[in-house]
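Regression test case RT-17, inverse folding.

Input:
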């Protein structure tokens, strides 16, 4: 789980989640040294490597989200995927509709990966940090879930 005693740097978090590469962080940091008034997330978003919403979520909300998870009161994975901009409302509705109609008995993260909207490492990162009790669960739902 990500440590909360000292704020983890945005670039490290995004790399661990496989949302950006070390090369992208290096380039953004070089640009930030030229323009110190610019935030790292702003630079990454401007270059089109992540959404601004994703940068803001991990820069501004992540530490509180982790604390919530550690206190045993995390929101659903779908909530965090939407709040972080990793999937949009339409994509979340699509996944939930497929689950409801019984066409796909898979968890939200697994369906987002299957549809190509996320990579598995990102889903694993989020589960490990937000729902560690479910991190090793099967991607398939039981019929009564």
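Golden output:
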């Amino acid at each position: 789980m990500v440590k909360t005693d000292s704020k983890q740097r945005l670039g490290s978090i995004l790399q661990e989640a496989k949302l950006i590469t070390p090369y992208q962080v290096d380039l953004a940091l070089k640009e930030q040294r030229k323009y110190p008034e610019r935030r790292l997330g702003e630079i990454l978003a401007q270059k089109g490597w992540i959404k601004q919403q994703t940068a803001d979520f991990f820069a501004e909300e992540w530490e509180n989200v982790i604390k919530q998870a550690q206190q045993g009161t995390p929101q659903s994975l779908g909530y965090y995927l939407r709040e972080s901009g990793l999937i949009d409302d339409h994509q979340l509705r699509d996944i939930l509709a497929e689950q409801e109609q019984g066409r796909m008995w898979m968890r939200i993260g697994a369906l987002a990966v299957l549809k190509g909207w996320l990579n598995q490492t990102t889903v694993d990162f989020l589960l490990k940090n937000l729902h560690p009790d479910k991190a090793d669960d099967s991607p398939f739902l039981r019929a009564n879930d």
